[in-house]
Task: structure prediction
Amino acid sequence: MASRRSERVGGLLVEVVAEILLREVKDPRLEGITVTAAAMSPDLRAARVFVRTLSGSKDVDALAGLKSASGYIRRQVAGRMGLKYTPGLTFVYDENLDDVNRLEGIFHKIHKGNG
Result:
């Protein structure tokens, strides 16, 4: 279970990374990227940043763009968050919404079959 501090830092990280992507990063591969969550390691030295695309599908070019811009994003995060250690950033496609939609479809089929 994540500590309250790692949850707070993760929430702030989501806001900071979203702001950086929206206002500063000019890579066309990153247009339409939404930052959905961040999972921090217990020592706050590593973070998995979960992202989605507007298309709602895993976009390999967008993930490559994020990997390419991760050094710049990390430097900007260091300047804005004021942590003792700047977390290493790993960008991951957020599949939670896909899972929810798949389960809703299954439940809808089951409900139709019983109704």
Observations:
- The chain is about 55% helix and 20% strand.
